[in-house]
Amino acid sequence: MLAQIKIGGLMKDNIILIGFMGSGKSLIGRLLADKLSYRFMDMDEKIEEQENCSISEIFTKSGEAFFRELETNFLKQLKLNSKTVLATGGGIILKEENVKQLKALGTVLFLHADFNHIIKNLKEDTTRPLLMGDDKEMTIKRLLDEREGIYLSSADVIIQTSGKTPDHIINEILSLL
Ligand code: S3P
Q1: How far is the CA of 90 from the centre of ligand 1 (A)?
Q2: In sequence order, which ranges of the chain are alpha helices (DSSP H)?
Q3: 44: Cβ below 6 Å to ligand 1?
Q4: Residue 90: CB within 6 Å of ligand 1?
Q5: Are 32 and 85 in contact (CB under 8 A)?
Q6: Residue 1's pLDDT is what?
Q7: Which of 68, 74, 96 is nearest to 86 (CA)?
Q8: 42, 55 in Cβ contact below 8 A?
Q9: 95-103 contacts, C-beta under 8 A, 24 or more apart
Q10: Taking the CB of the first residue and of the last residue of the chain, which one, N or C, has fewer CB atoms within 10 A?
């Protein structure tokens, strides 16, 4: 049984999705919100709207540290009504204060995808600035190594997604509510 729940089946009213790039946070988030008649919010999209600029452009023009500040400021100002599914960017867990804020906002659910699943999803991707270097696979491996433990320790609920259809994943999440 890979789905794991640490909070005794009691989900708070907002669901916060964390996980590595390409783990399906936006897709699963939209489907889940739809099923629950919750509102869906994608943090990266909100930051792009706010800055009137793509994430790639923000990285190129102002660098990663600036983007991380945008993420933290966005979260600080975010007031969620209940019944929202929030998909976060993969690096949101890099700052402890972000994780604290996410936990205050809702139940933090980690979509855990394995390396092969992530590679498959991101092979052709050109929108993730952190993966635009020479060796995408090596970069993914390194970032996964750096982050895996933080995702795990930040999560209230862990859902294994590799090899599962979106429907299967949604049903697994719904069964925990
Ligand atoms: C990032 C993940 C991206 C985006 C940015 C940085 C990361 O979001 O926030 O490119 O550091 O993992 P997704 O996880 O939605 O791809």
Answers
A1: 4
A2: 25-36, 43-51, 55-62, 64-77, 96-105, 115-122, 136-154, 166-174
A3: yes
A4: yes
A5: yes
A6: 33
A7: 74
A8: no
A9: 95/68, 95/71, 97/72, 98/71, 98/72, 99/150, 99/154, 101/75, 101/76, 102/16, 102/18, 102/75, 102/154, 103/154, 103/156
A10: N
**Residue pLDDT tens, the chain, 177 long:** 333 444 444 456 899 999 999 999 999 999 999 999 999 999 999 999 999 999 999 999 999 999 999 999 999 999 887 899 999 999 999 999 999 999 999 999 999 999 999 999 999 999 999 999 889 999 999 999 999 999 999 999 999 999 999 999 999 999 987
68 close to ligand 1 (CB < 6 Angstrom): no
**What atom of ligand 1 comes closest to residue 25's alpha carbon?**
15
Residue with tokens 């890979």: 2
Q: What is the pTM of this model?
A: 0.93
* Maximum C-alpha span of the chain: 45
Is ligand 1 within 6 A of the CB of residue 91? Answer: yes
Question: Which residue reads 């936006």 in tokens?
Answer: 26
In this prediction, residue 7 carries a pLDDT of 44
- Compute the distance from residue 128 Cα to the ligand 1 centre, in Å: 6
Beta-strand relationship, 4-5 and 157-160: antiparallel
